[in-house]
Amino acid sequence: xxxxxxxxxxxxxxxxxxxxxxxxxxxxxxxxxxxxxxxxxxxxxxxxxxxxxxxxxxxxxxxxxxxxxxxxxxxxxxxxxxxxxxxxxxxxxxxxxxxxxxxxxxxxxxxxxxxxxx
Length: 118
Fold this sequence. Notes:
Largest sheet: 4 strands, mixed
CATH architecture: 2-Layer Sandwich
CATH topology: Double Stranded RNA Binding Domain
Number of helices: 2
Number of strands: 4
Mean pLDDT: 90
Low-confidence stretches: none
Strand content: 15-25%
Radius of gyration: 17 Å
Number of domains: 1
Structural class: alpha+beta
Organism: Gemmata palustris
Protein name: Polyhydroxyalkanoic acid synthase
Distance between the termini: 45 Å
């Protein structure tokens, strides 16, 4: 499904790892394009962040690499809040795509600015 999925730093926190695994299932339903190229890393969010989980998505397409990190709040897992979970997951994915598009745009501009010899 995904290129790589890692769960890091969950020692002694099985309830939080279970939430990460649940969120991973939801993420699989949201990401369709380039899914086989996406690397996913889940870890507990830093205590001062107020988030429950930290999600890092990384994507490499020919000659371009981008990664984005975001927080998934613990309240997103409460009953009736599934929409919030999807929204937070989608936000990280869209951040990644924005970064990727910006890099591709820069490469196109650079290529167009380069004079071509006949």
